[in-house]
Amino acid sequence: MEFLVASSIGLLTMCGTYMLLRGRTFPVVIGLALLSYAVNVFLFAMGRLTIDMPPILRDGVTEYTDPLPQALVLTAIVISFGMTALIVVLSIRAYLEIGNDHVDGRPVGEPSEAGDKN
Amino acid sequence: MGHWIVVPIVLPAVMAALIVLAVRHDIVLQRIFSITSTVALVAVTLSLVIFANNNNPEMYALGDWPAPFGIVIVLDRLSAMMIFLTSILGLGVILFASSEWDKRGQHFHALFQFQLMGVNGAFLTGDVFNLFVFFEVLLIASYGLMLHGAGAERLKAGMQYIVINLTGSTLFLVGVGMIYAVTGTLNMADLAIQVPQVAAGDAALLRAGALILLLVFCVKAALVPVHFWLPGTYANAPAPVAALFAIMTKVGAYSILRVYSLGFGENAGDMAWLAQPYILPAAIVTLAIGMIGVLAAKRLNGLIAFSVIGSMGTLLISIALFTPESISAGLYYLLHSTFAGAALFLIGDLVASRRGAIYGDKLETAPVFHQSGLLAVLFFVAAIAMAGMPPLSGFIGKLMILDAARDSDLSVWIWSVILVTSLMCIVGFGRAGSVLFWKSASAEGVIEVEGANWPVLPIVAACGMLCALVALTVFAAPIMDYLQGTAAQLFDTTDYIRAVLGEIPATQSGQ
């Protein structure tokens, strides 16, 4: 199980990083989503991987799974979900205002305007 | 101090909700609520500073759950000073924005109050995961503020800013997860106890987690090589928002100082001063790159943004030395550079708006504009402060940092880079000022901007920032007394840990 979880986190992170580095906003959004999935599973695994254990310490229970990472993951999921919604709306708005969907606001091959801006 | 400790977080949160729910259609009421609340915040944080000056650190347990199981917020000298700084800066910015800027988009005041809540929370919290949550709160508010009164250029910069920060948040969670996996706690005071007891086999994992966390804080603090988001963001953000963002880079610097002096400081065994060897060289390069950017800038906002990067370099040099002298000097420079950066952004906007749409903030010769004499004086006072020339506080700050760097291994580098970059900063600002103000006297005509009535409030707000710099200079001795106490408190962590955990357990079992 450890190998399965670890390699799936690695795969998600790899794909997420690759997508994040793309030039258009859509792959970037997908990349961010993949990265946040990877980190959610990672956080979950940080409480040690166990199966069929109660998530709470009670009298008479000696083996239990750590409840804290589950609470952390819940917070992280809520935040990353909201952020994904925000960035989707923002990319659509940017596409409508700028006229293309490149993260630096210009299609490949066109000269940079940014040099004069700062 | 009882429940007063939580007021700097609760007050802006309640006020933001009130503004967005009850008075969202009435800009005048929004301004009244927002300004009144910020004034009250200044009063509360001032009394918290006075309390922290006379007392040991005090803990407030949210929901009355005892640490390390519940989330705590902690008031000590450093956090009290930072929330006071935030509320003063917030007051200046809200006054500046309340004449015209807040009408360019929706919900400026609500977002502004949420931003204050997030920043205050990040300064007060005593829990690493809670720090992440408050980072998110302040970032979400900052996304809204950054895009306030949008436009193509601002949307582009905003998009990049958001993607960078979302990636940073992901890394933050990875770092937090690794630290929790090894130590079993995320409470900062408890971390200080657990870190030295970590088994040798787990040390590498903990070190990796702590350094990933450091990387995230460096992104926030705009340290080279992760500073690329700052110039575009600050130069394209609305001016009052850019001025408020002067505190956001300091949140990164504060987090480095807090986490790496408490959890990974003197008593951390193998992990002692973990951050130092990485930050110091990067900070020196940051300072150099920032000031080269000042020389190369073609627009006033870009120039100011790069000078902010340079000042972050200076600040982090003194923090990274991790000695009591350097940290008190660095905290003084932190106060100074916050006000200097904010004042420059506000004055830059006054200049750009008076030069009209054609010239704006481009560093080109243009005809004389409205109130150019007054603005020239304000600009040069702020520029003198930023460059660190006498008589203002930047000079005192840099002098103390140079003095504190005497014993460092890299002292030659630190001295030469700080001195040379100060000269570059003077040249950069001198060139910009002469193009904007003096050469314009020789150009034909006068710039008239249609439909503008130039309210006086923004100028008052900008002058207020400069007055804060003058006050820092005049009251340097009492402020330094406070800051030396702050540095001493950061090095002697027993009071902090006792405040959070009660009596320190002599030996606590590891996991």
TrEMBL record, chain A:
Tell where it localizes: Cell membrane
Transmembrane stretches in the record are 6-21, 28-51, 71-96
| Keyword list, A-Z | Cell membrane, Membrane, Transmembrane, Transmembrane helix, Ubiquinone
GO CC list = plasma membrane
Answer whether the UniProt record assigns the keyword Amino-acid biosynthesis to this protein. Answer: no
User: Which membrane topology describes this protein?
Assistant: Multi-pass membrane protein
Any one Pfam family here would be: Oxidored_q2
Family, according to the entry, reads as follows: Belongs to the CPA3 antiporters (TC 2.A.63) subunit C family.
Write down the PANTHER family for this protein, in alphabetical order.
Answer: ANTIPORTER SUBUNIT MNHC2-RELATED (PTHR34583)
- What protein is this chain from? NADH-ubiquinone oxidoreductase subunit 4L
The organism encoding this protein is Thalassospira xianhensis MCCC 1A02616
